[in-house]
Design a protein that fits this description.
GO terms for molecular function: hydrolase activity. The chain is an alpha/beta fold. It has helices at 25-40, 151-166, 203-218, 229-250, 262-284, 304-315, 346-360, 373-389, 407-417, 421-437, 440-443, 461-464, 468-475, 485-496, 502-509, 526-533, 557-564, 588-600, 634-641, 645-668, 674-687, and strands at 2-5, 84-85, 95-102, 117-125, 140-143, 172-175, 297-302, 320-326, 392-395, 402-405, 545-551, 571-578, 608-610, 613-623, 690-694, 704-708, 711-712. The two termini are 24 Å apart.
Length: 716
């Protein structure tokens, strides 16, 4: 780790528990990953309650209908943290709770039809060295981004790895922000409003309507797929927002839609911290006073989670304990109608694919003998030109239904892959080669069997396919967005000057056009945060640490520099890699810096910039140890800088834990809708004659490689 001048910005270098009673660690991790994907694809039942308390269920004698995959319906909401065992087939230490908070913090009366409540779903991995649930150390809260990402799902996968990084005495909490996941009420515009007080919503019917609508609108592709696409896509978003407004009206303005801004979630985090401290004081008495972060927030937020963290710090600067903000959102840009500068580095990452593919040769399946980066790039664009002129059509060989593959669909997959190049660039080469060779049977793996739709009438898609991203993102706008088609087209063209993925980005931004659900009582936060970004620094109780890759597809380094300058003494660490958030590429240097910040309070120095050129300056940098198509060996990386065997083992465990965090974040990240596509791609390719196989040998134990007919296609 070192401090480096950025006066001449460089091109990024080529990129990177207690055992359960019945399962091995390896099996347990596999089950955790499977559960996350199980939830993503909606294969099990969930129930949402609207402003209703769930009867208490004793885990010693659960009802016959108890579902271990969905424990939330059996947990009674409470204003205190009442932890109950859950998901013990993944980890026997997991605990769940539902914390009741006001829907409107300005009117925190008892729950009634006029004053409903929010019940926040929390998943805890408690400290292992204490018998009590609460620990002397404050818990670390985590947020995967979005907006709309589930902290519960993230914690299911990565909480044990975080304890490996920060110590077994570090409690980890993943929570679903209001409107998201297992927190109730859900941000769901599609579920039919209840016909009477206390009646449940018809989420099944709403899900059916939502899926029908999504399929109907998919025919238009992206905003520039045709000369009529933008008109109909914008009309579709207006129609959905009209429906959301109608539902809010039927609920007398007491829906979650007007009470789900980031500032509301920041208040919820204070409620979580305060509830934790009340429990700690009760359980530990004097011991809790020894905690230096008592009553303060310990937090690791990714992507949109950095905006949540910055909002928290602007509202409650004296409650900042440790804030890791990774993959930084520009707080000045985020509340605007169109995030113009978010794609500042996106195309540079795609350019790295062309360069690396030519460099690694036949390891990249799109490579042809003698290729230069320009040759690979030309082949890439020829694929899209071909799809635009003649979309691929065929009959699904297994399920017998017609398939059409258009350029916009593949472009969405490519955009998703740019989030995690170290892991997924090899997969991109495979996908593009299939398209170039028009190998239809391989491409069929991209599409779900229609028979799966038969499972829809009671599965978890009702919990995942919500309007949380729309509701949160649009609630955070400075003022209602109501752009004309010409204005939208102008914004698209401005973004297109920076990135070829402007069409996908504009599609996300369209969600807020015509969203004007009233905010009954605006929670003050944005003015303070915006003032800080524009020059009036916020002083927090402990300095924030901002982290960014050199090239990030949606949260560029320039945003991290800008945000670090908005907070007094905030540190900045640039990881010389590309991908979304620093965990997209492994780095021992970064891992050590993150651990030292949380455990020992060591903060890298603030960035020093020259004028308004945020990329011309000095700050701390770390090299990445993981690159695409290169076998990654944590043991070898750790041994290079180790002073002795114990130090080498410690660093190896740290790197392996960071790799687990990396994979978990890939699984559940939902910054864009493309996240679902890439997960589907991985799973469906795995079920074709491209299969996941374990790599052999001590240097690759536990990693996975795509193999076809016995030939390794990935080295990870």
């Amino acid at each position: 780790m070192g401090v480096e001048s950025r006066d001449q910005p460089e091109t990024a270098p080529a990129a990177g528990p207690v055992a359960p009673r019945r399962h091995s660690t390896k099996a347990r991790l596999g089950i955790a990953t499977a559960l996350v994907l199980f939830i993503v694809f909606g294969h099990f039942r969930t129930t949402h309650l609207w402003n209703a308390r769930v009867p208490y269920v004793d885990y010693a004698d659960p009802p016959s209908s108890y579902d271990p995959l969905n424990p939330w319906v059996s947990i009674t909401p409470s204003v205190e943290l009442e932890w109950q065992p859950c998901y013990d087939f993944i980890n026997p230490l997991f605990q769940c709770a539902r914390l009741t908070v006001p829907l409107d913090y300005n009117h925190p009366q008892a729950q009634s039809c006029a004053s409903p409540k929010v019940h926040i779903a929390l998943l805890l991995l408690p400290a292992k060295k204490n018998a009590n649930i609460s620990s002397v150390r404050s818990p670390m809260l985590i947020n995967p981004g979005g907006p709309g990402g589930s902290g519960v799902l993230l914690a299911l996968s990565l909480a044990p790895a975080l304890q490996t990084i920060f110590g077994e005495d570090q409690p980890i909490i993943g929570f679903d922000p209001r409107g998201i996941g297992y927190t109730t009420p859900p941000a769901d515009c599609w579920a039919t409003p209840p016909p009477c007080d206390g009646c449940p919503e018809d989420t099944g019917k709403g899900l059916g309507h939502r899926l029908e609508w999504l399929n109907m609108n998919a025919v238009f592709g992206s905003v520039n797929s045709s000369n009529i696409a933008l008109k109909y896509l914008e009309a579709g978003q207006r129609a959905v927002n009209d429906m959301c407004r109608e539902k809010d009206s039927q609920l007398d303005g007491q829906s979650i839609f007007g009470h789900a801004s980031t500032a509301h979630v920041a208040r919820d985090m204070i409620s979580i911290v305060d509830a934790w401290e009340r429990r700690a004081d009760k359980d530990q008495h004097a011991a809790a006073a020894e905690n230096p972060t008592k009553g303060k927030l310990i937090y690791w937020g990714f992507s949109y989670g950095t905006y949540l963290g910055a909002t928290f710090a602007s509202m409650f600067p004296d409650r900042v304990g440790r804030l890791l903000l990774d993959g930084v959102v520009d707080a000045e840009l985020y509340p605007t109608p169109m995030w113009r500068d978010s794609l500042f580095d996106t195309d540079k990452i795609l350019g790295e694919f062309f360069r690396l593919c030519a460099e690694v040769g036949t390891k990249c399946k799109l490579y042809r003998d003698g290729d230069t980066p320009a040759d690979v790039e030309h082949r890439y664009y020829s694929i899209f030109d071909g799809l635009s002129a003649n979309p691929i059509t065929f009959t699904h060989p297994d399920s017998f239904f017609p398939v059409i593959i258009r350029a916009s669909f593949i472009k969405t997959l490519v955009f998703s892959i740019l989030y995690s190049p170290a892991q997924l660039f090899p997969l991109l080469g495979i996908l593009l080669d299939f398209l170039y060779e028009r190998q239809h049977e391989q491409l069929a793996a991209l599409f779900q069997d229609p028979q799966l739709h038969c499972l829809l009438p009671g599965n978890a898609l009702t919990g995942l396919l919500t309007d949380a991203q729309r509701v949160i993102m649009c609630s955070d706008k400075i003022r209602p967005v109501n752009m004309t088609l010409d204005e939208i087209r102008s914004e698209f063209e401005a973004v297109a000057e920076t990135s070829q993925f402007a069409d996908l980005w504009t599609g996300i931004m369209l969600q807020c056009n015509n969203w004007d659900i009233a905010k009954p009582h605006r929670v003050a936060s944005e003015p303070t945060l915006l003032q800080a970004v524009k020059g009036s620094k916020i002083e927090t109780a402990f300095p924030i640490l901002f982290l960014s890759n050199t090239y990030d597809p949606v949260t560029p380094l320039v945003a991290a520099v800008k945000m670090a300058l908005a907070f007094k003494d905030a540190g900045l660490l640039e990881q010389k890699a590309y991908g979304h958030c620093t965990i997209s590429a492994a780095s021992l240097c970064t891992a050590l810096a993150v651990r030292d910040y949380v455990l020992h309070g060591k903060v890298p120095p603030p960035p020093v910039v020259h004028g308004k050129d945020y990329l011309a300056g000095r700050w701390t940098t770390c090299e990445a140890d993981q690159t695409p198509w290169k076998q990654y060996n944590p043991a070898a990386t750790a041994s290079v800088s180790a002073v002795d065997e114990a130090d080498a083992q410690d660093k190896q465990r740290l790197l392996e834990a960071f790799r687990s965090v990396q994979q978990a974040h890939v699984d559940v990240q939902k910054w864009t809708g493309g996240g679902h596509d890439i997960n589907r791609l991985l799973i469906r390719l795995a079920r074709s004659d491209v299969v996941w196989a374990e790599l052999q040998g001590p240097t690759c134990q536990g990693s996975r490689s795509l193999t076809t007919k016995g030939v390794n296609l990935l080295e990870s």
